[in-house]
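User: Just a sanity check before I run the rest of the batch. Below are the structure tokens for the first item. I only need the designed sequence back.
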């Protein structure tokens, strides 16, 4: 119980991977490429802590009310 292995899950297929894995943090080169493809197509909205759907909604709401209520 001494070896603290750093384990993560492959972002693509959720397979457990270790930091010594050649394709870490992916389980394979294939998954790495799939992941890159996801980034390129903008499929990764959830993984970013900055982009919260509610925040985005609030921002667009604000923009809308700013446009119609200029004198407030
Ligand atoms: Zn994988």
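Assistant: Here's the designed sequence for the first item:
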């Amino acid at each position: 119980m001494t070896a603290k292995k750093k384990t993560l899950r492959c972002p693509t297929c959720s397979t457990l991977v270790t930091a010594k894995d050649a394709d870490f943090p992916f389980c394979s080169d294939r998954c790495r490429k799939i992941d890159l493809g996801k980034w390129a197509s903008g499929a990764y909205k959830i993984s970013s802590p900055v982009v919260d759907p509610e925040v985005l909604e609030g921002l667009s709401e604000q923009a809308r009310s700013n446009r119609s209520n200029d004198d407030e």
